[in-house]
Amino acid sequence: MKGNFFTLRTVMWDRGKVKMIDQTLLPARLVYRSYARWEDVADAIRRLVVRGAPAIGVAAAMAIAATAWGSKAKTADALRKELEGAAAGLRSTRPTAVNLFWGIDRVMAASRLPTSAEDVKEAVVKEATQMAEDDVEACKRIGRFGADLIDDGDTVITQCNAGALATVGYGTALGVLRAASEQGKCVKVIVPETRPALQGSRLTAFELSVDGFGCTVISDTAVGHMMASGRVDKAVVGADRVTRDGFVFNKIGTYQVAVLAKRHGVPFYPAAPTSSFDLTRTHQEVVIEERPAREVFEVRGRRVAPRGVPVANPAFDVTPPDLVEAIVTDRGLVKSPVQDNIGSVVG
Ligand code: MRU
Predict the structure, then answer these.
(1) What is the model's pTM?
(2) For the chain, which ranges sit under pLDDT 50?
(3) 91, 112, 178, 306: least CB-packed within 10 angstroms?
(4) Protein residues whose CB sits closer than 6 Å to any atom of ligand 1
């Protein structure tokens, strides 16, 4: 298989509106939703209508652009005040993926210089739409750098969805696999379902099967067995935030993949754009999102745990740098020891 990859854009600018695939409906239905109000985009981010670190960064930036587009403010300062309100609301949606804050900061920075309301509007729309293009380009560069790590015939395990659906297009971890396939390599993928929101079975398996990759969905509890029985050659995952001490925040379950990979001699590669790196913080300073208990105690609307039993639902976990072989970025590989080499690649 070569080329012809999942070509849908996850997040788009549509004449004053943010248009996004409703990922809560996949794989059963492919539906786009359009939002003109930042409050509705914030709600969509919270409900995982749009999810994945780079995708929520661009969606939030476009929500600010949509606010500017629809504003009746007469002066640049009045409009900037309105945008600050939107930015604060969007910042409060999800705490872990740094791309959200990066996207908001980038579009707000573009609003600072213009001296008329019209020029502020133009600047933020231009910046937000440029970010969407940049994201696809960054994913393709990640793919090119990462593809050389993959051998013909490899079976690669991933976690969650770090594909086109988690970005504007092409994907980070899945971008690496797409690029390897473009090089003519045959790659098979093992996809842990990724409870509780099932991004693996619903989204990754959907993307990969549309593209014609051989993929096998497993329960999250089968990861150790698949590795111990020699069925995994590489692990390639995404990242929601990489801190300056080399710790990788990604979807819950990633840490167990990394530990098991180390145990079984499987190289573990996170793939992430520069916008996912947070060189201002160490891992102790990052908040891990706790999501609603209902996601765990219910399966398809049916309760699967007794009433009253406490539930914990951390959405992300943290993989320490000693388990990481290299991080694939849009500027090249951050090789082990990653905590020492981050600065020279993405700094
Ligand atoms: O809760 P989600 O679905 O937003 O979590 C997504 C992930 O953890 C992805 O692996 C991560 O954002 C990297 S996406 C390129």
Answers:
(1) 0.97
(2) none
(3) 306
(4) 51-54, 97, 160, 162, 166-167, 172, 199, 238-240, 250-251, 315
